[in-house]
Design brief:
The complex is a heterodimer of chains A (420) and B (478). Chain A has two domains: 362 residues, no CATH class; 50 residues. In chain A, 21% of the residues lie in helices and 41% in strands. Chain A has seven helices and 19 strands. Chain A has a ten-stranded mixed β-sheet, with helices on one face. Chain A has a nine-stranded mixed β-sheet with strand order 3-4-6-8-10-12-14-16-18, covered by helices on one side. In chain A, α2 packs antiparallel against α4, α5 packs across α6 and α6 packs antiparallel against α7. The longest helix of chain A has 21 residues. Chain A is globular, with a radius of gyration of 21 Å. The two termini of chain A are 35 Å apart. With 478 residues, chain B is an alpha/beta fold. Chain B has a domain of 290 residues. Helix content of chain B is 22%, strand content 34%. Chain B has ten helices and 24 strands. A ten-stranded mixed β-sheet of chain B has the order 4-3-7-9-12-14-17-20-22-24, covered by helices on one side. A six-stranded parallel beta barrel of chain B has the order 13-15-18-21-19-16. A two-stranded antiparallel ribbon of chain B has the order 1-2. In chain B, β3 and β4 form a beta hairpin. In chain B, α2 runs antiparallel to α7, α5 packs across α6 and α8 packs across α9. The longest helix of chain B has 17 residues. The chains are: A alpha/beta (420), B alpha/beta (478). The interface between A and B is large, with 37 and 34 residues.
Chain lengths: 420, 478
């Protein structure tokens, strides 16, 4: 059994900190040491017992990680883009060749928020205690990005039973707009743990379009907690396309603080081979006339486990809220499993809130129909799965990006089908 | 002071108390109390041992705290665990010997205890505080081999059946309130339907808490043997008091091969007054096991009363092709809090379940649907359909939905949908225009909203339930 306790001397090894910061880190470390990795007794981790997963797969968790050798980046050639390169959580290069440089601010992230708020999630405590890298990206007021910004998250092959803790912050100024592609490339063949804390702020009338895409499957164990603040009239659209990790939990919180703010989240994934994936969302409607829309689609194959926990919270002042949540899962194998907990907590009466959740196999009638048209069983099911997932991809507006993602998803599916 | 009756709540017509002398167990929860209950009930030794086993378990278990409604700590030592009308000590042989005051109480409640009301065709077992008062239509049922009697009587007369099934669905170690019930349960109904028998009438139990500072812990056990059918109704009321009273019942249903049990509840415990003072804490454990092939258990509930309700009537679908159903209406007004729902646990092949839940909250109330649908790896070709709708009246109340959905095999299908909204203004306007006042219009629309569930109730109950829906929401509009 792996010992989860972390010695406080590790904090000194990370760097020299002010007294205030050190206390903050120590406090969080103690909290983590008291609780350990979350397990299924924690309501939020009911379906993802991380403690067991970690102790089964890791013999140690190395906190200190020496800077790795420079990685070669395989740039996307399908469309013109600006880029930022993050290697093992650390900001290593950037290029904004299509933009006005004075409108953008990019630096290594320095945490200055030592809030005493108690976190319920031990992994956030762990991050608060040990994080030492990350970036801060700011788009100044009244500036619209001309080209998409791709953030390459590289994980190098020398990662082996390491744990990376990083913190990122993105701020989109008033009336500004940013299109973002978070592109994850993993070269490590070994187990490692990536623990990210993300803070996103959308000022009045700001727009953020975000696509999260994993290039390939990997043996990483990922946890990301993201807190998003949306002010008056802002609009956040997020697409999530995970390709499958040993463990992946995306814990996303959206606070619709300003009136008429809108958030839209869609996800499509194909998971296989004992992979475990959880998407957990919490949308807090805190002001009137806000909209939120979520659609999460999963296809699960051999031994795969998918989880969706979504919560819509509507405060009593948030009248005229329009909130929607849909989770659909297709289970292809006897050994796959899908758990969901779509939750509503509503305190305002003039609202329209609904959710739906379905899980089951491919529709037999549809397969039969396709087979009467001359397709084999395999081809029919492939066609149906494609259609199921592409519904999400099709709502991406930009042609070149949509096609790029479609090709990526196709290759993933192709690889799957070859195996079977 | 505590025993004072409060009269200003006119909406709750069952709020009267009956002045009857009571015999009470010593106050507080102890081995002594349990031995007292067991002795009064003239129970065999095994039953007392069973109770004590539960009591020992209780010492190490903790009150659950995950529910949405929080409540002040209950002082379990400040309660009477047994209260019986004095005149009941020598059990009456027939209805003529029952204390006329009791009969009067039940008449006030509109329960057809008198055999002259034979036309209504419902066999009734009435439980007053801790004991079963009277059971009607016994002869007719005996002819068919049906056993319908207080559970204390069944422990003495049918120990084999009780021993075999009691605690087999809700084990004594289940959770705090179920364990508490196992230790101190006082009375309740026992039903056994022999193989291939269709119970000719609805069986019904009326529960009434009368004495103050008393907890009511009744236990119901229904066994439907192979190929049998029974429909069971349950109603509950309590006087208006400014204290909170605890009601922690356990209900166990067992359906063997091809058997069907239909269990309907109209729960109208005293909900507390307009300011949230008093009312019953209704912490009930209800669970049914579809043990046999092709068996079916159907729960229907109309929850309008109680200050706090925690109740999750569940089905364990063990037998292949078994069916579980849950139809619920939960109405909360003023400061009432309800956290209710169901669990459908699919273990057998080709099992089906259906959940229809309607929650209505008004005033400053909180209404939560919490449910679990769990389809196991071996429960191939299983099916679930869930629909939960919530209606909000006013912006001081809350409506919540917390479903847990687990699917562990690919041949099963689960569908879940939920909506939350307020009463459509166009509908209200239409009704107003046709001459209905605001309250009538709301009542009509709400009844329409609940129709799917109300339809499931047996005739006698459906009428009462419809009225209740209207009464519970009085004063919540405008």
């Amino acid at each position: 059994m792996l010992n989860f306790k972390i010695n406080s001397s590790e904090i000194d090894k990370i760097g020299n900190f002010t007294k205030e910061e050190k206390n903050f880190r120590l406090k969080n470390l103690n909290y983590f040491n008291d609780n350990g990795f979350p397990n299924k007794k924690d309501e939020d981790w009911k379906f993802s017992d991380l403690k067991t997963i970690i102790s089964k797969n890791f013999t140690k968790l190395d906190i200190q990680f020496a800077k790795s050798k420079k990685e070669k980046v395989d740039f996307i050639k399908d469309f013109e883009h600006n880029y930022i390169i993050i290697t093992n959580g650390e900001l290593s290069a950037s290029d904004f060749r299509y933009e006005e440089k004075n409108k953008i601010n990019l630096e290594s992230f320095v945490n200055d928020n030592y809030s005493n708020e108690k976190e319920n999630n031990p992994l956030i405590n762990l991050n608060h205690a040990l994080s030492n890298k990350g970036y801060y990206l700011e788009v100044k007021d009244n500036y619209k990005f001309k080209k998409i910004l791709v953030i390459y998250y590289l994980f190098t092959e020398d990662l082996d039973e390491n744990i990376l803790n990083s913190k990122n912050k993105i701020r989109i100024g008033k009336n500004s707009e940013l299109h973002l592609l978070e592109y994850l490339v993993n070269s490590s063949k070994q187990n490692f743990f990536n623990n990210v804390y993300e803070d996103v702020v959308l000022e009045n009338s700001a727009t953020l379009k975000n696509i999260y895409l994993q290039n390939n499957k990997s043996s990483g164990y990922f946890h990301k907690y993201s807190v998003n603040k949306l002010f008056t009239g802002s609009n956040y659209t997020s697409f999530i396309f995970p390709a499958g990790l040993k463990f992946n939990k995306l814990d996303l919180e959206f606070n619709l603080e300003g009136e008429r703010s809108e958030c839209n989240l869609q996800s499509a994934s194909f998971i296989d081979n004992s992979e475990h994936q959880e998407i957990k969302t919490r949308v807090n409607h805190l002001s009137p006339n806000c909209k939120s829309h979520q659609k999460v689609k999963n296809v699960l194959n051999t031994e795969a486990k998918g989880v969706y926990q979504g919560k819509i919270f509507v405060k009593d002042v948030a009248q005229k809220t329009d909130a929607y949540q849909l989770s659909k899962a297709i289970l292809l194998s006897e050994s796959s499993e899908f758990n969901s907990k779509p939750e509503l907590e509503i305190y305002a009466d003039d609202v329209k809130c609904s959710h739906g959740s379905t899980s089951g196999n491919l529709d037999k009638d549809s397969i039969y129909y396709l087979m009467t048209r001359g397709l084999s069983q395999k081809e029919s099911s492939k066609l149906l799965i494609n259609g199921f997932l592409n519904e999400v991809v099709d709502s991406i507006k930009s042609n070149s990006i949509r096609n790029f993602i479609k090709t990526k998803l196709q290759t993933q599916l192709q690889n799957e089908h070859k195996k079977h | 002071m505590k025993n004072q009756n409060i009269n200003y709540n006119q909406d709750y017509k069952y709020g009267f108390t009956t002045d009857i002398e009571n015999i009470k167990a010593p106050k507080g929860l102890s081995e002594k109390t349990i031995k007292f209950i067991s002795k009064v009930k003239k129970e065999p030794k095994w039953m007392l041992e069973w109770r004590l086993k539960a009591f020992n378990r209780l010492k190490v278990s903790k009150e659950p705290n995950w529910q949405k409604p929080k409540f002040p700590k209950i002082d379990y030592q400040d309660l009477y665990y047994y209260s019986a009308p004095k005149s009941m000590k020598d059990k009456p042989k027939s209805l003529d010997e029952v204390d006329p005051k009791l009969i009067e109480t039940y008449n006030k409640l509109g329960i057809p205890l008198n055999e002259q009301k034979k036309l209504s065709g419902v066999a009734v077992d009435a439980v007053f505080d801790s004991v079963s008062v009277a059971t009607t239509f016994k002869d007719e049922l005996t002819k068919k081999g049906i056993i319908f009697c207080p559970i204390s009587e069944a422990i003495q007369k049918h120990p084999d059946l009780v021993k075999k099934y009691l605690g087999s669905v809700i084990p004594i170690s289940d959770h705090y309130f179920a364990t508490l019930n196992s230790a101190v349960f006082t009375d309740g109904s026992f039903v056994y339907i022999p193989p291939n028998t269709r119970c000719p009438m609805e069986l019904s139990t009326y529960f009434r808490i009368n004495a103050s500072e008393t907890g009511q812990f009744e236990r119901t056990l229904i066994i439907a043997d192979k190929g049998s059918y029974v429909s069971y109704l349950e109603g509950c009321t309590a006087p208006m008091r400014d204290e909170n009273q605890l009601h922690a019942a356990n209900v166990e249903l067992i359906a063997l091969d091809d058997a069907e049990i239909k269990y309907s509840t109209v729960q109208n415990w005293y909900p507390g007054d307009k300011n949230g003072v008093g009312g019953i804490y209704n912490f009930v454990t209800k669970r049914g096991a579809c043990r046999g092939k092709n068996s079916k258990i159907s729960w229907t509930q109309v929850e309008t009363g109680s200050a706090i309700t925690w109740k999750y009537p569940s089905c364990i679908l063990q037998g292949d092709n078994s069916i579980g159903e849950f139809y619920s209406i939960a109405i909360t007004n003023n400061y009432q809090k309800a956290d209710t729902g169901t669990k459908m646990i699919h273990l057998g092949k080709n099992t089906k379940s259906k959940i229809i839940s309607k929650g209505i909250s008004a005033g400053k109330a909180d209404n939560t649907y919490r449910g679990l649908v769990d389809i196991g790896r071996k429960a191939l070709n299983s099916r679930n359909y869930t629909q939960c709708d919530s209606l909000l009246m006013g912006n001081k109340c809350g409506a919540h939905t917390v479903p847990y959905i687990r699917n562990k095999n690919s041949s099963s299908t689960i569908e879940h949908e939920a909506t939350t909204s307020k009463i459509n203004e166009d509908q209200l306007f239409y009704c107003n225009q046709r001459g209905l006042n605001q309250e009538e219009a709301v009542s009509l629309i709400v009844n329409g909203f609940c129709k799917e569930v109300l339809q499931q109730l047996p005739m006698e109950f459906a009428v009462e339930a419809q009225k209740l829906v209207g009464i519970s929401l009085e004063g919540s509009v405008g």
